[in-house]
Amino acid sequence: MNFMNNIIEDIKSRFNPENTEIVKKNQIAIDFKNEEVHSALAYLKSQGWKQLTILTCVDWIKENKFQLVYILMNWDNSITIQVRTKIDRDNPKFRTVINIYPGAEMYERDVHEFFGVEFEGNPNHEKELFLELWDDLPPMRKDFDPLAYSKKKFDVREYKVDFIPKEGEAE
Amino acid sequence: MKRQVKLFLGPNHPGMHGNFSVHLYVDGDIVEKARPLPGMLHRGFEKLMERRLWMNNLALIPRICVPEPDINEMVYAMGVETLAKVDVPERAHWIRMIILELARIANHLMSLGGIGGPTGLYTGPNWAIADRDLILDIFEEITGARVYHMYIVPGGVRKDLPKGIEKKIENFLDYLEKRLPEYDDLILKNPMVQARTVDNIVLPEEVCWELGVTGIGLRSSSGKPYDIRKVDPYARYDEVEFEVPTATYSDAYTRLTIKYKEIQQSIRIIRQVLDKMPKEGPVRARISRGSALRWRVPKGQVFSHIECARGEYGYYIVSDGSNMPYRIAVRGASYPQGLLGIEKYLPGTRIDDVAIWLDTMGVCAPEIDR
Questions:
Q1: Three-state SS for B264?
Q2: What topology does CATH give the domain A2-153?
Q3: Distance (Å, whole) CA B315 – CA B328
């Protein structure tokens, strides 16, 4: 725990995180302001967090915010860091991190497709990856209703039973 | 004369691992451009999970990965236990390790034998699937199901081991240990497999870091034991002895050899677990008063990760304090090697090497697609 506190102190001395938290053994979560994320990621990468494990997004619809979560793993001291930031939900744009973590390219396309967040600077972020010919709200947003979508999209089929029970058989 | 042809590999192809497709632009038999095309089996697991109770999700998540479904249950249970601050009984930790290691062997067998598909050695898959079936028999006896077990639940495991199963597991391990040299002869020493895999599709270490490749890909290129079971131990992996096989040159053959060695290590782990585990005691903590279906998990965001046969597997779990997850993101272990890996490292290889990459890197379609 002491070691993790040192990491948090180090981050606090260089950046102005909004919030820091020790989530569990070997895991830290840090909330940054939008403009600090890139420099924080670059700094953490130079400190041994060489792997971007996942980039994902959480839709906080009541706050009208998207939260981007970058999870970094350091294999040498086994500490995972969640780098989190909140962006505006109405105009979701964020600068890409592929210059820091090239592997983020696909995750950014993923988040773009499922949440509609635009990653400026990622040349492929608008290319379809999973959902071909999708024509509705990005499906992982909280205001997307899968039931209404499938009702709109697919007809209700009538099921015709052509089985005629014989004598003694259950209907 | 140069002529580029577009070729569709999958979703229905004997060398394809699941419902996945790769568009290949080839000249002769050399791949010039490869474009992965997931989205063939989109069932929307993450969205479905947001609309189900914490406990109901257990029936859904094993379906994310067919060859090794138990990792999903484990990683979900670990995350939920962290958020809800549940203490898992001692015996449950050890039972979980048996299940996870058996599943790991099953997956490695499938993939080691599976190399026979792309190389034309059809005895390989036949043997491996038959031996995997013996593991499924054990699973059936423990959990009541062969493939999707829903056995590891938040708070422990669903029920205790049936009587006499330890003996059966030991018998199986004895059998498998005798059988492994035969796999060595059949697959690893086979000149046909060697001709197709040695010095083929080499993965340098920098590429692993760049893409985020974990598991056998990372271990076989960096030479370091980067395994979550060692680096950030869960269950009781810190109380058993095992080695993590590594290498410093990652061609397809090395990766196959490492899979073979990992089966041996898993056997070693299960033997120690059977020896060391407490012989009785509770296997499931009480998580809520009243019904588990009305159970609410406290607010929080946690990333839980474990080592699966293909690398680091993780769930990012967000709870807003209600009876359903607010958001769950799945980090499939084969995501980096299955998407960017294909796009960046298949050009320049031959058409028939594509299936070898998919097998030795362990690309599992539903993990990418979800």
A1: helix
A2: Beta Polymerase; domain 2 (3.30.460)
A3: 7
Does the reported pTM lie above 0.80?
Answer: yes
Mean pLDDT of A89-117: 92
Residue type, B148: Y
Nearest CA in chain B to A146: B47
Q: State ipTM.
A: 0.91
Instruction: Give tens-digit pLDDT for B21-51.
Output: 888 999 988 999 998 888 887 778 899 999 9
User: Which residues lie below 8 Å from residue A1, measured CB to CB, with a gap of 6+?
Assistant: A22
CB contact under 8 A, B327 and A58: yes
Nearest CA in chain B to A45: B209
Query: With an 8 Å Cβ cutoff, are B42 and A51 in contact?
Result: no
Pick among A45, A52, A54 to test the B interface (most B CBs inside 10 A): A54
- Edge to edge, the sheet with strand B300-308 lists B300-308, B311-319, B327-331
For residues B348 and B118, give the distance between their C-alpha atoms in angstroms, rounded to a whole number. 18
Q: How far is CA A38 from CA A21, A43, A84, A125, A161, in A?
A: 20, 9, 11, 18, 61
Of B13-22, B41-50, B182-191, B353-362, the range with the highest mean pLDDT is B182-191
- Residues paired with residue A86 on neighbouring β-strands, in sequence order: A67
